[in-house]
Amino acid sequence: MKQMKIVKWIALALLALLALRLSFYTENLSEKNRREAMSRYNPEELVVAMMRDSLSALEQRALPLAQWQDMLQKDPQTLASTHARRLGIGSPLFYMIRAELSEVCLVDDEYLRAFAEGVEIRIPITYIFGNTARDASGWFNIDDFRNTMDFNAVSAAMNDYIAEKMADFRLPEQASLRVLGAVAIPEDAVRLERLELIPFVLEP
Amino acid sequence: MKKILSQPVAKPLIALLLMCIIMSFLSENFATSDNFFNVLRQTSVNLCISVGMTLVILTGGIDLSVGSVLALSGAVAAGFAQKGFSLESMDVYVGFTFWGCCLAALLVGGALGAFNGLMVTRFKVPPFVATLGVMTIARGLTMLYTGGFPITDLGGGFEFVGTGWFLAVPMPVWVAFVVILVFSFFMKKTRTGRYIYAIGGNEKATMLSGIRVDRVKLLVYTLAGLLSAVAGILVTARLDSAQPNAGTGYELDAIAAVVIGGASLSGGKGSIAGTVVGALIIGVLNNGLVLLDVSPFWQQVVKGFVILFAVILDRYSSKH
Amino acid sequence: MKRLILALLIIPLLLTGCGGERAQQTKSKPKIAVVISTLNNPWFVVLGQAAVERCEALGYEATLFDSQNNPSKEADHFDNILASGYQAILMNPTDADGSAVNAKAASRAGVPVFCMDREINLPGACVTQILSDNYSGCISLGQYFVEVMGRKAKYVEILGLVGDNNTWARSRGFHSVVDCFEGLEMLAQQSADFDQNKAMEVMESMMQAHHDIDAVFCGNDAMAMGAYQAILGAGKAGKIKVFGFDGADDCVNAIREGKVEATGMQFPKTMAETAATLADRYIKGERNLPKKMPVAVELVHRKNVAQYGNFGKIQD
User: Fold this and answer.
1) Is residue B5 part of a domain?
2) Which of C12, C71, C76 has its CB closest to that of B243?
3) Inter-residue long-range contacts of A52-56, CB under 8 Å, 24+ positions, other chains counted
4) Which residue in A87, B193, B260, B281 has the fewest CB atoms around it within 10 Å?
5) DSSP calls for C272-289
6) pLDDT tens, residue by residue, C259-307
7) CB C216 within 8 A of CB C188
8) Residue B3 is assigned to a structural domain of this protein
9) In degrees rounded to 5, what are phi and psi of residue B169?
């Protein structure tokens, strides 16, 4: 009887050990870390690549400010259908615009202000928020991203990139600049008094 | 024929049959093989919990913590699937396999069940109160463990158990089936099974005849915890994620299944077969009411009435 | 015992013999299922009802299902829907990952799924996802917050349900703007589970603990209204500015009356109607539908509140 009991206990112990062994697996930690780093989402890389390779093409596509203003007042529908980008329903209209500005002043260390074509232009250089830069550039398609937060991470990366690029910006003596930037306007806007331009290129 | 009808599970079984027949006339979508497996799959979680609840109720106790234990063990299974340990000094990562996660979940469920048992046997806390306490504790632990968020991205083993099929039967149904077989055998053919009935029938007499009542009760609550863990694994597998609010209210469906199946809440009377029929009745009811497009609020009312009706019928017929 | 097992096995076999593999298509109208995460919140009730109305206007029979914020319940609904011959499912997911399994099961069974308002992290499972970008909406709200409060102020935040994706999308969007300004200090952050009553109590406690609160940002409009009640009760109406999110009617009216500063209007009716229309187009054979369709969240504040109401823009 006692032998039966001992055999039973040994069998149980072996079973328990087997269960324990079957319950985990091991792999190289460095391997795993490397594999995860490769598959991790990196929006900053995407942004840097586009800014490096596609900026000049964007500049060529952009509308001069005067022409844009003109078309907006005379024929907004054609302007929208030929040059605007949208993101879904209820979206504002996004445009890429280039302009030559004079008598630019720096306000509060946060944005540049100038007047052109009868409109006040504001160019934020310290605090840049929102999806205007991403959506006006047309470089990124929402369908290519797993979810909205990943897509928004691109905006954040773009805004950070631009803010960093503008961190060393100093207003030149003549206070005149050439700018390539992104704007967002409501769908039914015809005449604007103020325009916010997110700068992609800002040069004296 | 008389022998079949005299068995206590006959009444709920006839009720189930009648319900199925009525439902198939009321809704053309009820009597299809797709829907049949739906009902079985949806009932499989309740079946696991109810079997455990049957054991507890047979001893004259009750277990309100099953839903929360389900959630915690499901969360632990998911947590272990998602993250293992890293030992940087040896450059090794220890991950858990599907079985490892199940083992972890079962350990958690069993531990909580044993805790319930300890409260009831050692500290003489009434089962209602003890399991109520554990219900709250386990829910809190689940919230702490998950941080309030679902744990996701669990891998193939879970996906197969949750949504896979084997021999044309869904996996969760197989799990429930095995549980039912094992425990039917346990209750009918082992000594401990008979002790459980004895305790429910007359605890004092059982104790006086030398049976270790406390030991059996501890076992019963631990088994209930283990079965809640099994159910927790099923739920996590089904959704490929562990939800912090999983299992809320499941204890009521389990108790309902046991009671409709003919068990007495004071213990000693009842069977696994009866519980199975009871769970199926609730499953068919849930499924049927949805197919008939009955508002979810009315569904609650109907379910409550069915439970009351079943118990009254049972009391009435046992008096004769 | 053996006879009972036999009996249990025979019933289903008899029944499946009568029923057949899948429910035959009925002679009556084609059906669309609308599965909403919870009908306990008026915003979602509007979403669901607008979807049902548009489906019925397009000639379908639409049924509303309530997932009670529980992916398990949602899974059960999907099981029943797939067994009942619905042509399409308009779904408001309970959880970005937990609901993915359900959508996958539906698309495997050949029933197209259209997601409304929230997304699931499995792009292939839905035909189209009609989304409301809570994160970007709260960025606009955050920018307005900075404009109104200035660069130096103290505020508290009341979060929604901790386990809800939207709660964190909104909070993170808000903080991504406001945290850039060191003068804007968050004194406390508590959750009130998107509930008006709970928010009132939380706000009262926070006002007890901090006597210098200038503003409160609430994760949804119900909580904003609750917070306002608390502020009114403490006699500080007008001293503490309230910001909400959602575009609920009572909050928009409160903005009109100057009680609340701003909210983000999400367009449940637009989303629901778009989903229904897309489902109809898919059922009629069109396959080239966009995978994602964002619906912009618009900032509603004192100056433009006249345009908004009834969960959308007034001219709708």
Assistant:
1) no
2) C71
3) A54/A137, A54/A139, A55/A200, A55/A201
4) B193
5) HHHHHHHHHHHHTT----
6) 999 999 999 999 999 999 999 999 999 898 989 999 999 999 999 888 8
7) no
8) no
9) -125, 135
pLDDT tens digits, residue range A7-62?
Answer: 999 999 998 888 888 878 877 788 888 888 777 888 888 899 988 888 888 888 89
Q: Residue A24 and residue B86: Cβ atoms within 8 Å?
A: no
- C-alpha A96: how far from its chain's center? 15
A92-108 residue pLDDT tens? 999 999 988 888 888 88
Question: How far apart (Å, rounded) are the C-alpha atoms in residues C286 and C128?
Answer: 12
In a domain, B4, yes or no: no
As for how many domains chain B has, the answer is 1
Which tokens hold the place of C26? 């009925």
Q: Is residue B275 part of a domain?
A: yes
Write down the pTM of the prediction. Answer: 0.80
Spatial separation of the C-alpha atoms in residues A89 and C292, rounded to whole Å: 11
Q: How far is B89 from chain A (nearest CA, A)?
A: 10
Is B44 in contact with B175 (CB distance < 8 Å)? Answer: yes
Identify whether the C-beta of residue B262 lies closer than 8 Å to the C-beta of residue B271. Answer: yes
Q: How many CA atoms lie within 13 A of C208 on its CB side?
A: 7
The Cα B152–Cα C71 span in angstroms is 12
CB-based contact B244 C21, cutoff 8 Å: no
C107 touches chain B (CB under 8 A): no
CA B298 to each of CA B15, B303, B307: distance values in angstroms, whole numbers, following the listed order? 21, 9, 14
Q: C315 is written with which tokens?
A: 């001219």
Instruction: For chain C, say whether B287 makes contact (Cβ under 8 Å).
Output: yes
* Between residues B9 and C35, the one the model is more confident about: C35
Candidates C7, C168, C121; CA nearest to B20 is C7
Q: How far is Cα B255 from Cα B247, in angstroms, rounded to an integer?
A: 14
How many Å lie between the alpha carbon of C159 and the closest alpha carbon of chain B? 13
What is the per-residue pLDDT across C65-91, written as a single tens digit (0 to 9) for each?
988 888 888 998 898 888 888 999 999
**Residue whose pair of structure tokens reads 């008979």 in the numeric block:** B194
Cβ <8 Å between B36 and C12: yes
Chain C residues in contact with A147 (beta carbon < 8 A): 96, 119, 121, 123
Q: Which residue, among B39, B98, B71, has the nearest Cα to B228 in the 3D structure?
A: B71
Boundaries of domain holding B112: 11-315
For residue C264, the one-letter residue type is: G
| Separation CA B235–CA B78 (nearest Å) | 11
Nearby residues of A11 by Cβ (< 8 Å), 6 or more positions away: none
In single-letter form, the type of residue at position C61 comes to E
Contacts of B91 in chain A (CB under 8 A): 28-30
Which candidate, B275, B53, B237, places its Cα nearest to that of B161? Answer: B237
User: Whole-angstrom Cα distance, residue C157 to residue C216?
Assistant: 6
Q: Which CATH number does the domain housing residue B79 bear?
A: 1.10.3470
Percent of chain A that is helix, strand, coil (3-state, to 5): 50, 25, 25
Report ipTM (2 d.p.): 0.83
